[in-house]
Design a protein that fits this description.
It is built from seven helices and ten strands. It is of the alpha+beta class.
């Protein structure tokens, strides 16, 4: 009996400790479990609501999955930190660790993050869209693809240009397509002895006859400069961005032929002899 009593006393102590732990931690664990379950349901619900809102606002489809993923991760991190605090885990050092890690990653990837932020801004504010003709960072071309880090252009020479979104979002962008029309700037030189009025009529007739030249705004011809033996004529038709190069090359060719047919000569070369 003397040997059994200490064993019974030890078991009683273990039972008492277990009950004490249950009374102390039971409500906390139960509350944390309830908060975790409800929190995960709320996170899922908010994700669905966010997806509906993005669809209702017609947000770019290439941006939706990324934003939904970011929202889901951030909400779950907040939820798990809250649950950890409820069960007595010190979250101050954990939050500081996350902040330090985020700062280190941000410094290491600051160029990439700038491109990422630029891509998000482009997808949200849409300064240009896929298929439009733009000029950015010294490059002219049609937008082939807008990715989260870069924009891909196809130039008139059929070259592929990849431009970081950070540079584009912080620079000047010329969108030639957004207005639905573009002015084609041409320059013709005629002899100073030629009749300017007749030359203007000939060039206007060529622009009016071209099927890809828009009627509105009306094409225009004017004297741009008087350059010694030459008169420079500014020829300004309008076309759609898709027809720009066709109009550009066609009018230079047909305009020159029409001027020659009308007897309007080009500027004659001159030579100045100094004594």
């Amino acid at each position: 009996m003397n040997e059994i009593t200490p064993t019974a006393d030890g078991a009683q102590k273990l039972a008492d400790q277990a009950l004490e732990l249950a009374y102390t931690w039971g409500p906390k664990l139960a509350g944390a479990l309830v908060v975790l379950i409800i929190g995960l349901w709320v996170v899922s619900r908010m994700g669905k609501l966010s997806a509906r809102m993005m669809e209702r606002k017609h947000m770019d489809v290439s941006l939706r999955p990324f934003l939904l993923s970011m929202i889901n991760v951030l909400l779950k991190v907040v939820l798990f930190i809250t649950v950890a605090g409820m069960v007595g885990i010190q979250t101050t050092s954990f939050i500081a660790l996350i902040g330090a890690a985020g700062l280190a990653v941000g410094l290491a990837l600051q160029g990439t993050l700038a491109n990422f932020a630029g891509g998000v801004l482009i997808l949200i504010f849409k300064p240009y869209k896929v298929g439009q003709l733009i000029e950015a960072q010294g490059h002219l071309g049609h937008v082939k693809e807008i990715q989260i880090f870069v924009t891909i252009l196809t130039t008139p020479e059929n070259k592929m240009v990849i431009i970081p979104n950070g540079a584009i979002s912080n620079g000047n962008i010329i969108n030639y397509t957004e207005q639905g029309m573009i002015r084609v700037d041409l320059l013709f030189n005629i002899s100073a002895a030629s009749e300017v009025k007749k030359a203007k009529q000939v060039l206007l007739a060529e622009m009016t006859a071209h099927p890809k030249v828009l009627k509105e705004p009306a094409p225009f011809v004017g004297v741009l400069n008087l350059n010694g033996p030459a008169v420079e004529l500014a020829v300004r038709p309008y076309s759609t961005p898709e027809d720009y190069w066709e109009v550009y090359f066609d009018l230079y060719e047909s305009g020159k032929a029409a001027l020659e047919l009308a007897g309007i000569e080009g500027p004659q070369p001159s030579m100045l002899i100094k004594n």
